[in-house]
């Protein structure tokens, strides 16, 4: 307490001195302003809590969500590259509202010849084209891949009125669907499957020139119910290509007919394994269910290579059922190698599965299933135990895309089987990412059509955590590296993006169709923000508890951004409105610097500045005070002396008010520093400072972000020490995404230009 009093007294004197030196001429009153403080609460941005969603960020007592159950018969026509389907949908209205019509998503319509999405962006003529690109852009007719709807009928087989608007179909009901009731109807359809390698898209087929076989990764392949909720009614925002999918949960019963020599896996549990598996495959499958350390081959490479040689005209039907999923996808090809391994998640066994052609080896056989298993374990640790019975990684040429229990991932070696680190880590990273999407948004089911960052950014953050854990737990995978080379997540990796022209930036809280660079905006920046929140702002313990709370609260439900923001605060007692506002609602950047450092010592009398102040104000004397002087004004050579020796007043005060023993126990500093931090950037952040002393020791202090609450431009801090400070560094570990580090040190370090570094490199 006594030490504190001395420090406070000295600080008060210093502050008083600064106050004396300021001249405040009379100023005219300025106009008032609204509250622009960076720490104001998000009341204006947030919706009012209600019975559906609480102020704590949890589902309310009246929370509801609709259910859509599907029964489908699908046929894949390999020869003609078409898919045919008939489906029966049972839609249950759990809302308190009566519904006059239903909205169905027809996402394949984005690929129709006359789709408006084809003209959504500007175009220019390049100076030169590769022949393939020229042919694609100017000679070929646009691919026609939209849905062909043959009928829409009620459960009695009578036609229903419907209208198609781009990628949405409104089904008009004969009478209002009352709250608590359900309605069943059927749709028959077909469409042309696109070549996803040459025609882009999130699904389709790839043709392998070496054997003329195709591998199919099929998704968005059936008319799907749109979401209806209390937030926006029907989520019938058109699918333009960048935003993804908002879907209700339901149960699926799906039969898929493919050529009999195809290997197939899909969302859900296989119902007729004995019909579609050979005896040897069944034997291997049972072995895989007990193998926890090494994948078991269900279909070997030699078997897949043999299957490539013939094209069967016979058919085989695979039957799957899935409970409480929001989507369905499958992969099918005679080229697939197939391996599986069990992984323990909580008290359950889950199958980690990979499917890949021989073109994926040896990379896929070595890493895919192992990475799937590690991903499931780490994600479960940070969220909730993975609830499904399997997770499948399917090899695809250029795609990274996710669906319940199954995902499509790129990463292909050279023809001779060799591959670079870039290909290897790219494949591992995308597998972690897409398998991770099972958690966000397949289970924690945010609205991807509106808020891409809620699935992509949150998932990329957990991907980063998983990658780093993988590097620690399985160093053999990353050898000779010491740390997994994550592409996104660390603060330093988002600096370039946050430094670009503001005209090319959009806030994270933007629709994915309207941002300038989707990758950094929806993936990189929110992932980095959450990592900074965990590592620097909240701390791992508070963050991890709050993050798990959010994940568990919203399992199999539809959270909004507000639900996430509110839960993170509710479960941690950390006010984060300033953080959400700055990082998510603006395009501000971090730039905190050291503006000035004043080195002070306790002097024998008034400082030079104080004497000048006395002269300017006509003061003949001052009341007894302990005085400070700047180092550069030390005419008595006492700046390294003891304050008690320099100031008789201070010495007498202590002797009169403290015992000798108390004075002996006081830690009286020799050196006093007033450090002024400035903030050229818009984002407020904690100030992380490392002080280096003349004896080589270092001390790191983190000043809370609240230091900026009353002055958004400048903050001063007083530091005292018995050791002289020789260096001050801001953000020494580069953990705040500071875009300009040239102002982060005292004394200021001279940074060499790129040209100077180049010249030195040449000389070396």
Task: Outline the structure in words.
With 764 residues, this protein is α+β, with helices and mostly antiparallel strands. It has three domains: 2-16 and 591-746, no CATH class; 40-63 and 451-574, no CATH class; 67-118 and 131-450, Immunoglobulin-like, CATH 2.60.40. Helices cover 27% and strands 26% of the residues. The chain is built from 19 helices and 31 strands. The strands form seven sheets. A seven-stranded mixed beta sheet has the order 4-7-2-1-13-17-15. Strands 16-19-20-21-23-22 form a six-stranded mixed beta sheet, with helices on both faces. A hairpin with a 2-residue loop joins strand 5 (162-165) and strand 6 (168-177). Helix 6 (363-382) packs across helix 7, helix 8 (452-473) crosses helix 11 and helix 12 packs across helix 13 (561-570). The longest helix has 22 residues, at 452-473. It is elongated, with a radius of gyration of 33 Å.
């Amino acid at each position: 307490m006594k030490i504190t009093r001395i420090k406070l007294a000295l600080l008060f004197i210093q502050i008083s001195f600064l106050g004396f030196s300021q001249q405040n001429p009379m100023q005219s009153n300025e106009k008032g302003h609204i509250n622009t403080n960076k720490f104001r609460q998000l009341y204006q941005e947030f919706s009012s809590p209600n019975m559906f969603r609480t102020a704590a960020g949890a589902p309310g007592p009246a929370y509801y969500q609709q259910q859509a159950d599907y029964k489908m018969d699908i046929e894949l026509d390999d020869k003609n590259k078409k898919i045919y389907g008939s489906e029966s949908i049972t839609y249950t209205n759990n809302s308190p509202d009566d519904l006059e019509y239903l909205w169905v998503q027809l996402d394949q319509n984005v690929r129709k010849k006359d789709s408006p999405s084809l003209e959504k962006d500007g175009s220019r003529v390049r100076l030169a084209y590769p022949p393939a690109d020229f042919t694609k852009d100017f000679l070929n007719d646009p691919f026609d891949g939209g849905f062909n709807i043959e009928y829409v009928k009620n459960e009695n087989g009578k036609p229903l009125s419907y209208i198609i608007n781009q990628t949405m179909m409104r089904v008009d009901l004969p009478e209002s669907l009352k709250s608590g009731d359900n309605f069943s109807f059927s749709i028959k359809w077909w469409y042309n499957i696109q070549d996803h390698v040459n025609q882009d898209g999130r699904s389709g087929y790839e043709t392998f020139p070496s054997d003329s076989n195709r591998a199919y990764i099929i998704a968005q392949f059936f008319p799907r119910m749109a979401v209806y909720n209390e937030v926006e009614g029907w989520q019938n925002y058109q699918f333009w290509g960048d935003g993804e999918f908002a879907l209700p949960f339901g149960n699926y019963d799906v039969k898929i007919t493919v050529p009999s020599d195809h290997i197939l896996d899909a969302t859900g549990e296989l119902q007729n394994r004995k019909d579609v598996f050979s005896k040897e495959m069944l034997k291997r499958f049972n072995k895989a269910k007990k193998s926890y350390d090494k994948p078991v081959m269900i279909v070997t490479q030699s078997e897949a290579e043999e299957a490539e040689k013939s094209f069967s005209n016979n058919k085989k039907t695979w039957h799957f059922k899935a409970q409480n999923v929001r989507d369905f996808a499958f992969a099918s090809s005679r080229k697939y190698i197939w391996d599986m391994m069990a992984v323990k998640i909580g008290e359950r066994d889950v199958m980690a599965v990979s499917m890949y052609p021989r073109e994926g080896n040896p990379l896929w056989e070595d890493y895919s299933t192992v990475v799937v298993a590690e991903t499931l374990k780490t994600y479960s640790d940070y969220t909730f135990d993975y609830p499904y019975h399997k997770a499948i990684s399917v090899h695809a040429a250029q795609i990274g895309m996710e669906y319940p229990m199954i995902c499509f991932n790129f990463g292909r070696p050279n023809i001779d089987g060799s591959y670079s680190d870039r290909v290897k880590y790219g494949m591992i990273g995308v597998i972690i990412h897409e398998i991770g999407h099972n958690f966000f948004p397949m289970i924690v089911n945010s609205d991807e059509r509106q808020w891409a960052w809620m699935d992509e950014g949150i998932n990329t953050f957990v991907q980063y955590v998983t990658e780093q854990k993988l590097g620690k737990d399985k160093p053999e995978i990353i050898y000779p590296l010491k740390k997994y080379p994550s592409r996104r997540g660390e603060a330093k990796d988002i600096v370039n993006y946050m430094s670009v022209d503001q005209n090319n930036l959009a806030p994270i809280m933007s629709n994915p169709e309207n941002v300038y660079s989707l990758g950094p905006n929806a993936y990189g920046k929110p992932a980095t923000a959450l990592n900074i929140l965990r590592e620097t702002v909240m701390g791992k313990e508070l963050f991890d508890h709050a993050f798990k709370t959010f994940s568990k609260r919203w399992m199999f439900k539809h959270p909004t951004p507000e639900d996430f923001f509110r839960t993170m605060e509710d479960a941690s007692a950390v006010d984060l409105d300033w953080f959400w506002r700055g990082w998510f609602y603006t395009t501000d950047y971090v730039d905190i610097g050291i503006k000035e450092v004043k080195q002070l010592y306790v002097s024998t009398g008034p400082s030079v500045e104080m004497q000048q102040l006395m002269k300017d104000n006509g003061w003949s004397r001052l009341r007894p005070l302990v005085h400070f002087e700047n180092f550069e004004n030390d005419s008595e050579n006492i700046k390294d002396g003891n304050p008690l020796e320099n100031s008789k007043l201070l010495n007498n005060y202590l002797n009169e008010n403290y015992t000798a023993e108390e004075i002996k126990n006081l830690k009286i500093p020799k050196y006093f520093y007033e450090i002024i931090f400035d903030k050229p950037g818009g984002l407020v952040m904690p100030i992380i400072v490392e002080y280096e002393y003349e004896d080589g020791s270092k001390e790191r202090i983190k000043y809370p972000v609240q230091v900026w609450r009353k002055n958004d431009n400048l903050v001063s801090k007083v530091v005292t020490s018995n050791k002289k400070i020789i260096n001050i560094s801001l953000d020494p570990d580069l953990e705040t995404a500071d875009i300009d580090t040239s102002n982060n040190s005292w004394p200021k370090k001279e940074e060499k230009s790129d040209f100077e570094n180049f010249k030195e490199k040449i000389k070396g």
